[in-house]
Every structure is written in structure tokens, then in C-alpha cells.
Known about the structure:
mainly alpha, two-stranded antiparallel sheet
Amino acid sequence: SAGASMTLFCYTCIPPLLASLCKKERARLNNLSVKRPVSFLSNDIKGNAKLWKWAYQVVYTRGFESNNGSGDFCIAPVADMFNHH
Length: 85
């Protein structure tokens, strides 16, 4: 996503709030990892940086934070297709 791909110089060219949000997004992308044991993921998948970046972008461009206080992100299956003709 755009915020994660910005350079340090880019942050000086945008408003402070936007720069702050973009820096947080970049930090999340750079710190991707499997936090909980996931037995059905192979070591090849766990070590595939390109796949993790794709998954991050899917979640953070199509997902929303759960309102139950858990901090989990949710994705409604096929919801991103509603704006297609």
C-alpha cells in the first residue's frame, strides 16, 4: 500500500497526521510475523516474504477492525466485489 512504500523524504512532503498514519502502516508491514502457532502453515509459507506482503495488503485494504475490543481485523468474504459491475 502507499503508506508502506513511502520514503523518509515522502513523509516530509505530506501533512503530519497523514505522515504519522503512513509511518505506522510501514512499521506494521516491516514487522509481519506469525504471532501464534499455526500448524497448517508450512515453513515455506511462513518464510515467504512476498506472500506475507500480499496478505498484509489484502487485509489492510479490505478489512476492518472488530468492534469487540479484541483488536482483530476481519474480512467479509467477497465484500470487495460489491463495487464491481
